[in-house]
């Protein structure tokens, strides 16, 4: 049975790398939110741009939900229907953490908005990669986008929200220590994930 697997975590947690490695292992479709469709690519540019577009928190949340609605309809559901696993770098839980907790719009309000956008179709398995803030900072050795540069208090709220969500849905979520080498994390992750597949 084809599974919809989402990777979550804060900035520099390694989720993009581990999502790619898992997709290769499973022969899954690798995708991302925002930006997994042509429409999503345009929205992503606006959402992460630090230069010339003012963007309020509610508008940000609505744009993320719009990206997600298109992504599910155009990419996720057809791929699952064809019998192929989908591995996504982020899902609705990122909006719940980033806009709900980080932007303080309310996790439940953002969950309601996004569940409407995706008609309640949440990922089957969510992998949360966790790393200490010092590790995250070392890995983000580049110029930061608009969300990455939102400040320490914002990212602390995001990290706390991810942990709370994982604890609230242990049958859906698995928490994996993201510290160490890429190979070490991949081995740790696969050992935890394999029984769920």
Quick tags:
54% helix, Rossmann fold, 5 strands, alpha/beta, 8 helices, 197 residues, 5-stranded parallel beta sheet
What does this structure look like?
With 197 residues, the chain is of the alpha/beta class. The protein has one domain (4-196): P-loop containing nucleotide triphosphate hydrolases (Rossmann fold). The chain contains 8 helices and 5 strands; from the N terminus they run E-H-E-H-H-E-H-H-E-H-H-E-H. Strands 2-3-1-4-5 form a 5-stranded parallel β-sheet, sandwiched between helices. Helix 2 runs antiparallel to helix 3, helix 4 (92-102) packs antiparallel against helix 5 and helix 4 packs across helix 7. The radius of gyration is 16 Å and the shape is globular.
């Amino acid at each position: 049975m084809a599974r919809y697997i989402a990777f979550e975590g804060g900035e520099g947690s390694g989720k993009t790398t581990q999502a790619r490695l898992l997709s290769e292992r499973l022969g899954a479709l690798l995708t991302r939110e925002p930006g997994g469709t042509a429409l999503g690519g345009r929205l992503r540019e606006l959402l992460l741009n630090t230069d010339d577009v003012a963007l309020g928190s509610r508008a940000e949340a609505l744009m993320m939900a719009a990206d997600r609605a298109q992504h599910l309809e155009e990419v996720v559901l057809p791929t699952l229907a064809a019998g192929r696993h989908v591995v996504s770098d982020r899902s609705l839980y990122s909006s719940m953490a980033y806009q709900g907790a980080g932007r303080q719009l309310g996790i439940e309000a953002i969950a309601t908005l996004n569940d409407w956008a995706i008609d309640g179709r949440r990922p089957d398995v969510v992998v949360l990669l966790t790393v200490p803030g010092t590790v995250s900072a070392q890995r983000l050795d580049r110029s930061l986008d608009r969300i990455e540069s939102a400040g320490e208090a914002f990212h602390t709220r995001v990290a706390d929200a991810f942990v709370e969500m994982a604890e609230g849905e242990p049958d859906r979520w698995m928490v994996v220590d993201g510290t160490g080498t890429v190979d070490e994390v991949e081995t740790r992750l696969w050992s935890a994930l394999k029984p769920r597949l």
